[in-house]
Design a protein that fits this description.
Blueprint: H1 17-72, H2 76-83, E1 92-99, E2 115-116, E3 132-140, E4 145-153, H3 155-205, H4 220-324, H5 334-341, H6 343-374, E5 383-385, H7 387-397, H8 399-402, E6 406-411, E7 418-420, H9 422-439, E8 444-453, E9 456-463, H10 470-473, H11 493-503, E10 507-512, E11 518-525
Parallel strand pairs: 6-8
Antiparallel strand pairs: 1-2, 1-4, 3-4, 5-7, 8-9, 9-11, 10-11
Helix pairs in contact: 1-2, 1-3, 3-4, 4-6, 6-7, 7-9, 9-11
Length: 532
């Protein structure tokens, strides 16, 4: 698997750039010091010694030549003069005339075999090694053969070597100081900018795009700093553009989400409306089918009562006639039959039964009428409707859910009919009153009031239930929001109701406190255009 090179940094000893610069400077200084303090002085000493050795040898040859010429001319005084040729040189240790050992019987007339200076001793062993340079030059003449032994001091060479070392030491010190200054300069102009670039790059990597490296040099590091600053600016611009794109995308997502929610709510409302329409159609059909037999029963109760009354009149007439003619004996046992069957009690029971049938038929007729009013087939027809009648129809359908535990207190005002979609208005009353009934866990009261205020009709539906908390009250009209258990509410009732009232250019106000009940006030315009 490919691994980036920087992954190996943990296995390599880390040497900082500043350290590398100083190590390089010190290495250069050390090499320069080695050459100036050791190598160059040694080479200079060798060069000086070689030149000095050649000079001494040339002097020895010159003395030997002068001696040989003087000997050839038998000018013995000239021999001494030739040997004194180098006597004035301060470097001279001694110059000595040597006799050739091959001429043992040669005796010069003068004392030729001497050493200059006169007090010098021509013994090289008495001098420390390296302190003198000794050269021997042989010569041959008629008078004698021998050689010139010449010794020069190396004090000047040693002094020159010391001076060279001293100068080298001073030069090395100056180079060291200059190197220190160069090191500081390099550190400042290379290490510091590079470290600044490194620190800025680390911060940029951590997300801080406000970094800027200030380097006004015209070299590659300055160009690198400019490129780094441009890169950071480009990254900041790219981040800003990305942020704007993300903001726009988030706004688009929010809009799309809101659109999807609205579409979903609209779809659910359409489904709910279709369910209500289907339920209304079914209910209307059932109400129509029930209405015929109920009308038949209701219409026949009174004739039945009249017929039964006629029959009873005939029976009582026969009874009176029989008593008048004293025909009881002819109808032996009839009084006993009448007594056994308690004819009067039976007649009272028949009257009570007929009365109950009549009341039941009237109640059933009211329920059927309520069903027909609530589930109007013309719910999508914009027409005038009686709000009080709509409330009564709704209460009729909800009667089974509140009877024997909730008292309905009605205060219907003298209000005009309003232009609306009656079926949709009935649905609003059904949703609000159903919630009010469910908000009363045991016994309680629901107050319903209608009145006219300006060009509006207002309907107040107030319960003595559990009430609504403030944090919940803000959400009750939101689609799919419900405080009921799962499966017991869709959270669409009040949302649909709010949409219906808003569609009618009306308003729903909610007043509630936890534990003190809830009041819904629905306001609907009396007159409005068909565009509602």
């Amino acid at each position: 698997m490919f691994t980036c090179p920087h992954h190996f940094s943990s296995t390599i000893m880390r040497i900082r750039l500043k350290t590398k610069i100083w190590l390089t400077v010190f290495a250069i200084v050390a090499m320069f010091s080695f050459f100036t303090l050791f190598y160059f002085p040694e080479q200079q000493e060798k060069y000086l010694l070689a030149n000095y050795s050649n000079e001494v040898e040339n002097l020895a040859k010159t003395v030997a030549l002068g001696v040989r010429i003087a000997m050839t001319d038998e000018n013995y005084e000239g021999v001494h003069e030739a040997m004194r040729f180098v006597n004035g040189d301060h470097r001279l240790k001694f110059v000595s005339l040597l006799k050739d050992t091959a001429m043992p019987n040669f005796e010069p007339q003068y004392k030729l075999l001497q050493t200059v200076p006169e007090n010098a001793v021509a013994d090289t062993s008495r001098y420390p090694a390296g302190s003198i340079i000794v050269k021997t030059v042989p010569f041959v003449s008629k008078a004698m053969s021998g050689g010139i032994l010449l010794a020069f001091s190396t004090d000047d060479i040693i002094k020159s070597k010391k001076n060279i070392r001293k100068v080298s030491l001073i030069l090395s010190g100056a180079v060291f100081i200059i190197s220190i200054l160069i090191g500081f300069w390099l550190s400042r102009h290379i290490s510091v900018p590079v470290l600044a670039l490194r620190d800025a790059a680390i911060k940029v990597g951590e997300g801080d795009l406000t970094q800027c490296v200030f380097n006004y040099s015209g070299d590659e590091i300055g160009e690198l700093s400019k490129a780094f600053n441009k890169m950071v600016q480009d990254l900041a611009m790219a981040r800003e553009q990305l942020k704007k794109a993300n903001t726009n995308l988030a706004a688009t997502n929010d809009t799309l989400k809101a659109t999807v929610e609205n579409l979903k709510a609209a779809q659910d409302q359409l489904i709910q409306a279709e369910k209500m329409a289907s339920l209304g159609e079914l209910t209307a059909g059932i109400a129509h089918e029930i209405n015929n037999p109920i009308n038949f029963v209701s219409a026949n109760i009174q004739p039945l009562k009249d017929d039964l009354s006629d029959i009873l009149k005939i029976v009582y007439a026969y009874d009176d006639r029989m008593k008048e003619k004293k025909l009881e004996a002819e109808f032996n046992g009839l009084p006993d039959i009448r007594h056994d069957h308690e004819i009067k009690m039976t007649m009272m029971e028949i009257n009570n039964l007929l009365k109950g049938i009549e009341e039941g038929a009237m109640r059933t007729s009211e329920i059927v009428k309520g069903l027909r009013n609530f589930s109007r087939m013309d719910q999508n027809v914009f027409k005038k409707a009686d709000i009080n009648e709509s409330l009564e129809s709704t209460l009729t359908l909800l009667h089974s859910s509140y009877k024997n535990r909730i008292e309905i207190v009605k205060e219907y005002g003298d209000i005009p009919e309003i232009l609306c979609y009656p079926g949709q208005i009935n649905q609003v009353f059904m949703n609000i009153l159903s919630n009010a009934i469910q908000a009363i866990p045991a016994e309680g009261t629901i107050f319903i009031k209608t009145w006219k205020e300006g060009d509006m009709v207002r309907i107040s539906m107030k319960d003595t239930g559990t009430g609504i908390k403030d944090e919940v009250k803000k959400k009750i009209f939101d689609p799919f929001f419900t405080t009921k258990e799962v499966g017991k509410g869709t959270g669409l009732g009040l949302s649909i109701s709010y949409g219906i009232i808003e569609k009618h250019h009306g308003d729903i106000a909610v007043f509630s406190k936890a534990g003190e009940g809830t009041e819904f006030i629905v306001s609907i315009p009396i007159q409005q255009s068909l565009s509602a």
